[in-house]
Fold:
Amino acid sequence: MATPRMIDIAVNFTDGMFKGLYHGKQCHTPDIAAVLSRAWSAGVDRIIVTGGSLEESKEALAIAETDARLFCTVGVHPTRCKEFDESGDPEKHFQELLFLAKKGAEKGKVVAIGECGLDYDRLHFCPSDIQKKYFEKQFELAHLTKLPMFLHMRAAAEDFCNIIERNKDRFGAGVVHSFTGSAEDCDKVLSFSNLFIGINGCSLKASENLEVVKCIPVERMMIETDSPYCEIKNTHAGIQFVKSLWPSKKKEKYDQDCIVKGRNEPCLVRQVLEVVAGCRGISDLDQLSKTLYHNTCRVFFPHDLDSAADAILSGGRSTK
Structure:
């Protein structure tokens, strides 16, 4: 069988782990090149590098410019939203984000505004009132750049959906990535016809998570790793459906031909695909991957849709 084509919509390549840094200790040399080589070999053909602050977004764009298959987001994560006020000039900070997003979009590299949203699990990093204020503000970035939204929602479904409702006409489409919410949260998100749901290892931990994943229409789903985090662990409910494995070694015994044990990376998006298929009883992995690929292109790469596949998936009507 042909290797399914996949797009990993969330990779934190700016994280120190991809520089060989773990808890401030240098364990190996930077290895993004080796990580990318494994991803391309596994059937990943595009990756979106996540920006979570102004500086991180700059770094994400620089990384994206190193390979034609890399793209990125520009925005401020809910737990980092204090950076607007701490910059001393929130409007200037916003304008710098806007300039970066526009510059990157003109190069075809910045494909979304984000990662932005609400995270009430980690209020110790940033209080909810500041999160809400600057989540709402970032819809202005989407409106001015005409870019989709790359969204984050943790334990905040009601406030999150209220803000989406107020701003639903200011952005064309978006994805709520790394979804771990309840079936009720899922229904709230999917009530917005322009929102998709991103699934990764964190979405597949418990049997309750798998029940939610079963209820998401595949036409509204995308897959991701959120690496170096959110790997599918042996203790996760989804592990029973994993078929593809890679050799791994501990970071202290680093080998560039092996994945680092405990560090997620983009090749493992193949496992996410397998778990989604397995828990839903889908035997045709290739068809599932085509649908998810199409969903991702619709939102982030609308000019790149494969017209033939598009016509098939839309019932003979090309959406190009």
About this structure: Residues 307-320 have pLDDT under 50 and may be disordered.
